[in-house]
Specification:
about 550 residues; mainly alpha; 24 helices; 2 strands
């Protein structure tokens, strides 16, 4: 019964967003009220704890809005400097085929940004870039969400493993004992082993993601509404997958969890751009494009519409190709440099901290404002102003448009993130119930029985769907998954690996990320339409990962490095 009750806030989101098609700005307040009602009257959590969780949610919302504003500002700066027109021409020169473009931008460049920064940053970078290149806003958001699976477990230089799994398991005596019995003398070695298993499952399941990406594009956004047009580029799509996943596995095995997505995507990007330029592995004499703009469905349009034929393009003649791309190169470089432990920049940026134990509840606001990716976006935007010698009118227009678009995103996020925090902070109530996420996970485990490993990724995906983060999902459920593995007599490291893979897949349908990605291109209010298009990708990913993990467990493969 507690599992069913814990599921109510999520059910409300699904019914209102996907079923009734309400915008998130109306659905999420209802979900928030349901979560608060359950916390106060069923879990019997003190009202001060609910208030503290809501305040923490608001602080996280401000962080998200800051990232959204920075991403939009960079795009608008490049728009008014003329650089965006140059970038578009560059992609057209690589290939005019939108199927090739979406693989290079969303799958490869997006995975690189995920490896560097994580936390929804790939959508903030790639979605507006695709819109600037002429993609419908809805198509850009859907593409940006679909690829947030395979690279996510190693996003932000390995944070979901090194922080999420680590904090979820470290310090538990039963885990330490079991890990020692498995033969791991070093905790870092244990994390690296789990990370390798995560990479292996991702590489297998993620093989089809670039192909699914183009099939979704042609099926939902083509003039013929044909999946066959997407399947036609299967050689290029599969090669793009292997270009990323093969180095990704090797990096995970020999270098650890920090760099699989970062280096895998970088290598894949170099290979695939070369292949695309030479016209290899793509259909000959066929170039797929979206229908003429006049034929687009109303739901495809967003509030951020970039007219590359307007007056600002006249400035493009003085912005060369390298100068046009330099802000994105600086963005990727700064994100990497500021997230490496070996360099001092991360410590410097994180030294500015805002901490508050809210109302003495133990629920903490712990913000490092200079470390948020939004800061890097804004710094790079200001550098772009100088590099491209922008005029005052263009600079002013970029800031005004960016502030307006960010404001539209604020309503939905002001309820989405506090709802998540109330949901997560329902432990310690007078009812004695486990906190809502654990109660729900226990219900799923009880239903699953001996085949529970097949369902384990769904629990991880649920955690990400609610919390908006693979890292938080791993933090919430890694211990639970480990203990279930011990109880049902299977290799617990595989259970944690399946948790991490499912948590990454959950980002594909995560309301939190869909709202943020939609807001970047002014698509606020159509979040349910996005989730309807991405849900089957999530279902494929989580179910396939569960079946693969179950097979590995039954065969006893990779139970140790020996």
């Amino acid at each position: 019964m507690t599992a069913l009750l814990a599921f109510l806030p999520i059910l409300v989101v699904g019914v209102l967003l996907v079923g009734i098609r309400l915008p998130a700005s109306r659905a999420m307040p209802v979900s928030y009220l349901v979560a608060v009602g359950l916390a106060l009257f069923v879990w019997q959590v003190p009202s001060v704890q609910v208030a503290a969780a809501s305040i923490k949610g608001l602080s996280l919302t401000l962080r998200l809005l800051f990232i959204i504003f920075g991403a939009i500002l960079l795009l608008n700066t490049l728009k008014y400097s003329g650089a965006l027109a140059v970038i578009r021409n560059g992609f057209t020169n690589i290939s005019a085929d939108r199927r090739v473009q979406v693989i290079i931008i969303a799958w490869l460049f997006g995975s690189f940004i995920e490896g560097a920064a994580g936390f929804g940053t790939p959508a903030a970078v790639t979605v507006p870039l695709m819109v600037g290149l002429g993609f419908p806003a809805m198509a850009g958001v859907v593409a940006g969400m679909i690829i947030q699976c395979t690279p996510v477990s190693f996003g932000a230089v390995g944070t979901p493993i090194l922080v999420g799994v680590n904090k979820g398991l470290a310090g538990e005596e039963s885990v330490q004992t079991a890990v020692t019995e498995m033969g791991f003398m070093e905790w870092d070695g244990f994390l690296a082993f789990v990370g390798f298993k995560v990479a292996l499952v991702h590489a297998i399941v993620g093989t089809l993601i670039p192909l699914l990406l183009v099939v979704v594009m042609t099926r939902f956004f083509g003039s013929k509404k044909s999946a066959r047009e997407g399947l036609a580029v299967w050689p290029f799509a599969l090669f793009a997958s292997f270009s990323l996943t093969l180095p990704y596995i090797l990096v995970a095995r020999f270098l650890g969890p920090e760099f699989p997505s970062l280096l895998g995507a970088l290598i894949g990007l170099a290979i695939e751009v070369t292949v695309a330029k030479r016209g290899w592995l793509v259909p000959k004499g066929e170039t797929w494009d979206f229908p003429p703009r006049a034929d687009w469905e109303a739901s495809w349009f967003g509030g951020l519409e970039i007219d590359l034929k307007s007056g600002q393009v006249s400035e493009a003649s003085r912005v060369g190709a390298f100068a046009a791309w330099l802000p994105y190169l600086l963005l990727a470089g700064l994100l990497v440099l500021t997230r490496l432990e070996e360099l001092p920049f991360k410590a410097w940026l994180r030294s500015v901290q805002l901490k508050w134990n809210i109302f003495g509840t133990g629920i903490q606001v712990d913000e490092t404002p200079l470390y948020v990716p939004g800061t890097v976006f804004i710094v790079v935007s200001l550098i772009a102003v100088i590099l491209h010698r922008m005029k005052g009118a263009g600079l002013s227009a970029a800031w005004v448009e960016s502030l307006k678009t960010t404001a539209k995103a604020s309503v939905a996020l002001l309820f989405t993130v506090p709802m998540v925090q109330v949901f997560l902070n329902t432990g310690g109530g007078l009812s004695g119930f486990d906190k809502m996420p654990i109660a729900l996970a226990n219900g799923v485990a009880a239903l699953g029985g001996g085949v529970y490993p097949i369902l384990a990724p769904l629990v991880g995906g649920f955690g990400a769907f609610v919390a908006g983060s693979n890292t938080i999902s791993n933090m919430m459920f890694s211990l639970f998954q480990f203990e279930v593995g011990i109880r049902i007599g299977v290799d617990a490291t595989w259970m944690v690996a399946l948790q991490a893979v499912g948590g990454a897949a959950g980002n594909v349908v995560c309301v939190h990320n869909v709202v943020a990605a939609s807001a970047v291109v002014g698509l606020t209010g159509r979040e349910g339409d996005v989730i309807r298009k991405t849900f089957m990708v999530f279902f494929y990913y989580a179910l396939s990962a569960g079946l693969i993990g179950f097979a590995f467990l039954k065969l006893g493969l990779l139970s140790s490095f020996g």
